[in-house]
């Protein structure tokens, strides 16, 4: 298992390098010039020249890349061109917010998606199954922004149950913090719940007709135990892997939802950075997201090992 | 239609008039099947694939998917109770306890995610309502009983660490852990190597001698049947074609299908000759002839075969479902 993990991490290194090159190159291809944005209305040629020199924008692109990547390796992601804060600090501020949102969304997704998937597999071909599928399909097809706005209108504006926007750090006031995150987490979670439900359903359907489930029944076990123990334990293996991957996606995909609910998370940071041509920040975020994604991937593989006794070496 | 259960005190299980079909089909997959199993005896149910032998066993165990099957008739007498085959709740109570089953595929019949000791103990806990430790002790005892070497270590191993023969032994240990009086074995050796087959059959015979359980062995291997059967039921296309003691059915087969089956077994002795086969294929549901279901492949088929032949007595305890049975007499008359 350790050997396997080591191999996975080794494979991840060229992936990260490739991503960093790609991100860097894409930035250079984008129209717009950060120096022009920074130099203000007057566009004094001297100021522009000074800024170009300061941020080493006159160097050839490969040299710029190497300068940047050297910093990254020593834990320096550069400075934000706009706010003059270190990128690492910015990310450190915003990432916990998005992680809280992602974790809560994932809880919603799991609590809704897995039981619904089990139920619709067990009741295959019945009204329950069709109903679950219709709900899942709607969950997948309803756009997040629409659902978010409708929830704000209904829950916040009409019923005044939950705040429509804003953010309170978890450390400041946990209850309030969770309250403000409930709706955005629900919006993000429903789409994932649908995906999870579909996967759980098909995994369960595959497992329910297996020989060992028949053996469990032949032992005289109660149907509940047959399904929740013997079938689910095997169906869950791919679901756990999927969950880890979805979690990586969640962090990247929270952008829109954070915008709607004005949550000061990762998503807001990246949108602002792109609009302001804040290269260093965009690069830092994309790199972080990519690494996070790869880490989740490795975790998914490791979990697969833990869950599947056949892969464990004695 | 089905044989009368003899008033023997040692009768363990008798089945009568078992008829069912799968939903959406127009013909019964199993029709008027009945048999008797006595203590310490082995009833072999033989026939080609698709003749309904496995689904008959699954029906007795209540393991057919309830919403996919329509049980039209069938009564079971077991442990002095008489109940309709579709009394699933009653069957569920003794399934895995008094009546146990092992399957054809040992490779996939054990749950890959759990240790084998736990899988056996689970069956014990369910039926004996005992604690973990006791169930585990029983699991160990059973593993030793089915001659698994280093049983104590095996207890904590996963199915993938065992060979096919070992896994079938584990299945047998699991099935017998609650001392069932009836064991249904659905082609338990088909997926195994020939040498391992013999070991498993020997093991079953040994355990039967110890416990006096009755075994229903479903198989298409006539060699196996000849070795261990007390009684034989030959099934064809959902009907019982011939039923009787192994000596009668093998020594004096009375149904053309049984005769066909027998002559398709290669022999080591006697002159070399081309292996005979039963020509044609088993008709599928929906294309079954309405009278004798074997008539579409039978060399003796005559107009009378459009009518369904009763499973009639051709000798003491020996029955065949053929208008021309007993065959020797018919042949004599026609000569």
The helix-strand sequence of chain B is EEEHEEHEHHHHHEHEHEEHHEEH
Please compute the radius of gyration of chain B using only Cα atoms: 21 Å
Q: How far is it from the N-terminal to the C-terminal residue of chain B, by CA?
A: 31 Å
CATH class of the domain at 95-266 in chain A: Mainly Alpha
Shape of chain B: globular
Q: Report the end-to-end length of chain A measured between terminal Cα atoms.
A: 10 Å
Detail the poorly predicted runs of chain A. none
Report the CATH superfamily of chain B.
P-loop containing nucleotide triphosphate hydrolases
Total domains of chain B: 1
Q: Name the assembly state.
A: heterodimer
- Count of helix runs of chain A: 13
* Mean pLDDT level of chain A: 85
**Which bin fits the share of residues in helices of chain B?**
25-40%
Q: Which class best fits the helix and strand makeup of chain A?
A: mainly alpha
CATH architecture of the domain at 95-266 in chain A: Orthogonal Bundle
Average pLDDT rating of chain B? 88
CATH superfamily of the domain at 95-266 in chain A: MetI-like
Q: What can you see in these coordinates?
A:
- The complex is a heterodimer of chains A (314) and B (335).
- Chain A is an all-alpha fold and 314 residues long.
- Chain A has a domain at 95-266: MetI-like fold.
- Chain A is 77% helix and 0% strand.
- Chain A has helices at residues 2-29, 34-39, 45-54, 61-73, 87-122, 127-141, 144-158, 174-208, 211-218, 223-253, 255-260, 266-275, 279-307.
- In chain A, helix 1 (2-29) runs antiparallel to helix 13 and helix 6 (127-141) crosses helix 8.
- Chain A is globular and about 85 Å long.
- With 335 residues, chain B is an alpha/beta fold.
- Chain B contains twelve helices and twelve strands.
- Chain B has helices spanning 53-60, 88-94, 106-109, 116-128, 132-145, 151-154, 164-176, 194-211, 222-228, 246-251, 256-263, 327-334; strands at 11-22, 30-38, 42-46, 69-78, 81-84, 99-102, 182-186, 214-219, 231-236, 239-245, 312-315, 318-320.
- In chain B, the strands form two sheets. Chain B has an eight-stranded mixed β-sheet with strand order 6-7-8-3-9-10-12-11, sandwiched between helices. A four-stranded antiparallel β-sheet of chain B has the order 2-1-4-5, with helices on one face.
- Chain A binds chain B through residues 210-212, 214-221, 230, 233-234, 307-310, 314, and chain B through 61, 63, 92-97, 100-101, 103, 105, 108-114, 122-123, 126-127, 158, 160-161, 171, 174-175.
